[in-house]
TrEMBL record:
<dbReference type="GO" id="GO:0000774">
    <property type="term" value="F:adenyl-nucleotide exchange factor activity"/>
</dbReference>
<dbReference type="InterPro" id="IPR003103">
    <property type="entry name" value="BAG_domain"/>
</dbReference>
<dbReference type="GO" id="GO:0031397">
    <property type="term" value="P:negative regulation of protein ubiquitination"/>
</dbReference>
<feature type="region of interest" description="Disordered">
    <location>
        <begin position="192"/>
        <end position="211"/>
    </location>
</feature>
<keyword id="KW-0175">Coiled coil</keyword>
<dbReference type="GO" id="GO:0051087">
    <property type="term" value="F:protein-folding chaperone binding"/>
</dbReference>
<feature type="coiled-coil region">
    <location>
        <begin position="25"/>
        <end position="59"/>
    </location>
</feature>
<comment type="function">
    <text>Co-chaperone for HSP70 and HSC70 chaperone proteins. Acts as a nucleotide-exchange factor (NEF) promoting the release of ADP from the HSP70 and HSC70 proteins thereby triggering client/substrate protein release.</text>
</comment>
<dbReference type="InterPro" id="IPR037689">
    <property type="entry name" value="BAG2"/>
</dbReference>
<dbReference type="GO" id="GO:0045862">
    <property type="term" value="P:positive regulation of proteolysis"/>
</dbReference>
<feature type="compositionally biased region" description="Polar residues">
    <location>
        <begin position="200"/>
        <end position="211"/>
    </location>
</feature>
<dbReference type="GO" id="GO:0050821">
    <property type="term" value="P:protein stabilization"/>
</dbReference>
<comment type="subunit">
    <text>Binds to the ATPase domain of HSP/HSC70 chaperones. May interact with NWD1. Interacts with HSPA1A (via NBD), HSPA1B (via NBD) and HSPA8. May interact with DNJC9; the interaction seems to be histone-dependent.</text>
</comment>
<keyword id="KW-0143">Chaperone</keyword>
<protein>
    <recommendedName>
        <fullName>BAG family molecular chaperone regulator 2</fullName>
    </recommendedName>
</protein>
<feature type="domain" description="BAG">
    <location>
        <begin position="109"/>
        <end position="189"/>
    </location>
</feature>
<keyword id="KW-0597">Phosphoprotein</keyword>
């Protein structure tokens, strides 16, 4: 009888310990789940800062190379460039780095995709129009929507092999490059228009002198 009570007491103790350990484990797991959400929120916030830095640098660079900057006095241009360079310098002091975890296959896919884009960029000066068309087909390969033009199927398969975060970065880089090309096209057209208008004025002045 006494032995039975001892055994019962021991079993009760084991049960209490097991129940307590399970509760503790559950609380720890819940805490880790909450921390995981905060970690992902941190990565998203840091990524947003990275993107904002890229946008700011692009906007500053765009202003420095805008047509408006060419149509002001040298003194004003110098002063504005000093301000732009100061803003550029302050933007570059912000260092944010979000490392992407990749397996070997994803690492290789990223290198391959980057190499393809770099090759297109290197041909900008030789043939801007063809480079723009090529970039459009690369961008279409990254889009989840129905593309308006041709899709580079080979590039698409390479991008699919990249990590999800890298896929987003590749798409953003292509968007930035296409915007830069569009701005370059506008600047060239404005320059040609101003030259054409200037030539027309000179011609009219010359005709007026002879008439």
């Amino acid at each position: 009888m006494a032995q039975a009570k001892i055994n019962a007491k021991a079993n009760e103790g084991r049960f209490c310990r097991s129940s307590s350990m399970a509760d503790r484990s559950s609380r720890l797991l819940e805490s880790l789940d909450q921390l995981e959400l905060r970690v992902e929120a941190l990565r998203e916030a840091a990524t947003a800062v990275e993107q904002e830095k890229e946008v700011l640098l692009e906007m500053i660079h765009s202003i420095q190379n805008s047509q408006d900057m060419r149509q002001i006095s040298d003194g004003e241009r110098e002063e504005l460039n000093l301000t732009a360079n100061r803003l550029m310098g302050r933007t570059l002091t912000v260092e944010v780095s979000v490392e992407t975890i990749r397996n070997p296959q994803q690492e290789e896919s990223l290198k391959h995709a980057t190499r393809i884009i770099d090759e297109v960029v290197s041909k900008f000066l030789d043939d801007l129009g063809n480079a723009k068309s090529h970039l459009m087909s690369l961008y279409s390969a990254c889009s989840s929507e129905v593309p308006p033009g041709p899709v580079d199927q080979k590039f698409q398969s390479i991008v699919i092999g990249c990590a999800l975060e890298d896929q987003k970065k590749i798409k953003r880089r292509l968007e930035t490059l296409l915007r830069n090309i569009e701005n370059s096209d506008k600047a060239i057209k404005l320059l040609e228009h101003s030259k054409g208008a200037g030539s027309k004025t000179l011609q009219q002045n010359a005709e007026g002198k002879f008439n």
